[in-house]
């Protein structure tokens, strides 16, 4: 919980946020353009005639997690070869086919999760899942980020995905515990709405009981949501870089 005051002019904060957002979007657009060109080359080399990589989210933001569109008439073996060729490109994240079809051949086990640990780590290192002050309501500006986390976790379906809410030590201990649980539950609901099966998601709030190693328990950086994938490749917990209101 937080009872502090804003220490800088609101207009200046808004301007800084807009500039940072614009820079991030420009950088992301350049990356998506480069990855798209490399993916098209890899797809052609793998025999993926008619397959087009889309490096944009449903909201139009550039992303490293492509959706492969087209190629419905290709064999499963060719589709798998195409997906693996795109996945091998440095910087490419989680991959899925349009419509959510799996990446496997008949009689073959699905490939191991693609980059789940690195992808979630990168997403939450760069941006923050924010909530309304002293509330479990996710800030509307963070819904797109939670959607990207869902895409990054999609290759891990079939595993148990743990969502853990944390707070710092400020405020009431019991209240922080409840708030952390409610926020983990809120993230779980958004992931379900984005197509992650409910039976594979576990939400838990631990309040301020598990501060980040090396940080004072009262440090705001302890306010965070962590993800881990149980029984496959663990997702590295990533603290919020610049916490929003808690």
Q: What's the helix and strand layout?
A:
Elements: H1 10-45, E1 52-56, E2 62-69, H2 76-87, E3 96-97, H3 116-126, H4 143-153, E4 160-166, H5 173-193, E5 201-205, E6 224-230
Parallel strand pairs: 2-3, 4-5
Antiparallel strand pairs: 1-2, 4-6
Helix pairs in contact: 1-2, 3-4
Give a brief description.
With 246 residues, the protein is an alpha/beta fold. The chain is built from 5 helices and 6 strands; from the N terminus they run αββαβααβαββ.
Tell me the CATH superfamily of the largest domain: OmpA-like domain
Terminal Cα separation, in Å?
5 Å
Question: Remind me, CATH topology of the largest domain?
Answer: 60s Ribosomal Protein L30, Chain: A
* Count of domains: 2
Q: Care to describe what's here?
A:
There is one protein chain. 37% of the residues lie in helices and 14% in strands. With 246 residues, it is an alpha/beta fold. It contains five helices and six strands, in the order αββαβααβαββ. It has helices at 10-45, 76-87, 116-126, 143-153, 173-193, and strands spanning 52-56, 62-69, 96-97, 160-166, 201-205, 224-230. It has two domains: 11-97; 116-230, 2-Layer Sandwich (60s Ribosomal Protein L30, Chain: A).
């Amino acid at each position: 919980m937080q009872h502090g005051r804003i220490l800088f002019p609101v207009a200046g904060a808004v301007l800084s946020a807009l500039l940072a957002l614009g820079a991030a979007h420009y950088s992301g657009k350049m990356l998506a353009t480069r990855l798209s060109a490399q993916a098209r080359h890899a797809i052609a080399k793998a025999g993926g005639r008619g397959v087009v990589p889309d490096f944009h989210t449903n909201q139009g933001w550039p992303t490293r997690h492509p959706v492969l569109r087209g190629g419905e008439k290709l064999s499963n073996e060719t589709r798998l070869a195409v997906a693996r060729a795109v996945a091998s490109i440095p910087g490419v994240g989680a991959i899925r086919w349009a419509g959510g079809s799996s990446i496997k051949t008949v009689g073959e086990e699905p490939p191991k999760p693609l980059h789940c640990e690195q992808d979630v780590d990168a997403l939450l290192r760069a941006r923050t899942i924010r909530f309304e002050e002293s509330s479990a309501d996710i800030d509307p500006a963070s819904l797109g980020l939670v959607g990207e986390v869902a895409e990054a976790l999609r290759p891990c379906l079939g595993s148990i995905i743990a969502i853990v809410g944390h707070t710092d030590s400020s405020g009431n201990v019991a209240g922080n515990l409840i708030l952390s649980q409610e926020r983990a539950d809120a993230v779980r609901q958004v992931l379900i709405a984005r197509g992650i099966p409910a039976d594979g998601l576990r939400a838990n709030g631990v309040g301020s009981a598990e501060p980040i190693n090396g940080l004072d328990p009262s440090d705001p950086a302890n306010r965070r949501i962590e993800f881990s994938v149980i029984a496959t490749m663990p997702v590295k917990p990533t603290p919020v870089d610049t916490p929003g209101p808690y």
